[in-house]
Amino acid sequence: MTEDDQKQRMSQLEARLTAAKKVQEPAPRTDKDFSQGELAWRMVIELTAGIVIGFGIGYGLDYLLGTIPIFLVLFTLLGFAGGIKTMMRSAHEVQDKKMAAEQGKAAEKDERD
User: Fold this and answer.
1) Which of 8, 24, 65, 79 is the most buried (most CB within 10 A)?
2) Predicted confidence (pLDDT) per residue in 38-67, tens digit
3) 3-class secondary structure, 25
4) How far apart, in whole angstroms, are the C-alpha atoms of residue 81 and residue 100?
5) Separation CA 49–CA 46 (nearest Å)
6) Taking CA 77 as the corner, what is the angle to CA 76 and CA 80, rounded to the nearest 5 degrees?
């Protein structure tokens, strides 16, 4: 066997391996959107995180300053408001993505017609 024959056989083998790897690759996911369950859990976690962070800051300030739980109540309410604001931002983000996808589909359908 000459070197040219070996190089040719190696290139053929590499081509067959590449083709076999392409067959084995999983298909890319077409649904890149969040499911409703994932969105609901995301919103619950955002709200809970806001409340817990506010509670922690308020409790820490009350402990350090030796006050009645005024900061605890105040920062828990602020955490709740921040959690609600974050939830609303997430809802608008998902809604905007859905609207953009629907507009893209409508424009694509118009181009085909």
Assistant:
1) 79
2) 888 999 999 999 999 999 999 999 999 999
3) coil
4) 29
5) 5
6) 90
